[in-house]
Write a structure and sequence with these properties.
Blueprint: E1 4-8, H1 17-28, E2 33-37, H2 43-50, E3 55-61, H3 69-80, E4 88-94, H4 104-117, E5 121-127, H5 139-155, E6 160-163, H6 169-186, H7 191-194
Parallel strand pairs: 1-2, 1-3, 3-4, 4-5, 5-6
Helix pairs in contact: 1-5
Bound molecules: flavin mononucleotide (FMN).
């Protein structure tokens, strides 16, 4: 039976933007979906359940131009012990910067994993301004693209899609700087402190 396993690879999965993106996938998928979070200690369980699904949509944030370590570790586990049936893997990756192209390396890593390990690779949605866009009037652009992503998966006509806020870089930088400076202030952290590489002590 055709069924989609939605995997959230954010390290802060329960409070993550990825969770919100995953909810859109569930909303727009014509096939039944089930949502799971990737944790340190649930790889065996995820692998076992994976065999029940025709498709996986891997939803995760970009971390340092790459995959969060939790996603990397799951891929390593699957490499060591593959599921009984390999689903088609599609990707929905979101990043903080404006340009969806920032996510390209992460997508290449997943493609490489699929090629090496005998999984078919499905569709991709790369979202820029992923931290912000869902709280702006532009969220309809995300909804539209996720509907298209889901449609491409069920039609088996795979696509590479992109979405971001339709604003210039300069405006994005101004708005995001203002946002983070105000955010820091709420926690007693100044702009200067945020600009140092020291994160502890
Ligand atoms: C440790 C860390 C590293 C990040 N690295 C990048 C990056 O390299 N490029 C980028 O555009 N955004 C980066 N981001 C921003 C996240 O991709 C963005 O905030 C995303 O929406 C987080 O999604 P989540 O809530 O699902 O974890 C980083 C965030 C964190 C916390």
């Amino acid at each position: 039976m055709e069924k989609i396993m939605i995997l959230n690879g954010s390290p802060r999965a329960p409070r993550s933007n990825s969770k919100r993106y995953a909810a859109y996938v569930a909303k727009y998928s014509p096939w039944p979906t089930e949502y799971f979070e990737i944790r340190k200690n649930n790889h065996a369980q995820l692998r076992e359940r994976m065999a029940e699904f025709s498709d996986v949509v891997l939803v995760f944030p970009l971390y340092a131009d790459s995959l969060p370590v939790g996603v990397l570790n799951l891929l390593k586990s699957l490499e060591a012990a593959p599921p009984e049936r390999r689903p088609v893997i599609s990707v929905l990756v979101n990043c903080g910067f404006l340009e969806p192209g920032q996510n390209e390396i992460a997508v290449r890593i997943i493609r490489f994993f699929c090629r090496r390990n005998g999984y078919a690779f499905g569709s991709v949605l790369m979202a820029g301004s992923g931290e912000a866009i869902l709280d702006t009037p532009f969220r309809f652009l995300v909804a539209r693209k996720i509907r298209r992503l889901a449609g491409s998966i069920v039609r088996r006509r795979y696509e590479e899609l992109r979405v971001t806020m339709p604003i210039g870089k300069r405006l994005f930088l101004m708005a995001s700087t203002l946002y983070w400076v105000r955010y820091g202030k709420r926690f007693g952290v100044t702009r200067q402190q945020m600009q140092t590489p020291r994160i502890e002590g």
